[in-house]
Amino acid sequence: MLQNTYVLYAVCLVAVGNLFLFLYAQQYLCIGIFIVSAYFTSFFSKYTVVKLVIAMIVCNIVSVCGFSQIDGYGRRKGPGGKMKEVLKSVGEITVNIAAIKDDVRKLANNTNPTITPS
């Protein structure tokens, strides 16, 4: 199986796709880790399939754990960085909904509306 050319082509296709996804997401650290881990794996295995699979596993672990996330100021974000941003936006949305409800109540209670129905 390790010497099968079709398996090699499939693994190469997945590895190149993985690298393009990291490039699209601007995770250059993961691309570097992929290259370095494939290089160091070449000392221990002669099969290219093994080298690529180990490199993909290592760089995806680094990506999923959040070690490669850097914000706009060059600081690293922890694994919970995205969740904090999502919770912050949800809080802003609920504040905006509450403000809209207050405006609707004020319009409903206003006896002299500025907008007349047609």
Question: What would your notes on this structure say?
Answer:
The protein is mostly helical and 118 residues long. The protein folds into two domains: 1-78, no CATH class; 80-110. Helix content is 69%, strand content 0%. The chain contains four helices and no strands. It has helices spanning 5-24, 28-41, 48-65, 81-109. Helix 2 (28-41) packs antiparallel against helix 3. The longest helix is centred in the last third of the chain and has 29 residues, at 81-109. It is rod-shaped. The N and C termini lie far apart (77 Å).
Distance from N terminus to C terminus (CA atoms, Å) equals 77 Å
Helix content: 55-70%
Overall pLDDT score: 77
Give the CA-based shape: rod-shaped
Rg calculated over all Cα atoms: 26 Å
SSE order, one letter for each helix or strand: HHHH
**Could you give the count of β-strands?**
0
**Number of domains in the coordinates?**
2
Low-confidence stretches: none
Structural class: mainly alpha
Number of helices: 4
Largest β-sheet summary: none
**How much of the polypeptide forms β-strand, as a percent range?**
under 5%
Name the features.
mainly alpha, 2 domains, 4 helices, about 0% strand, rod-shaped
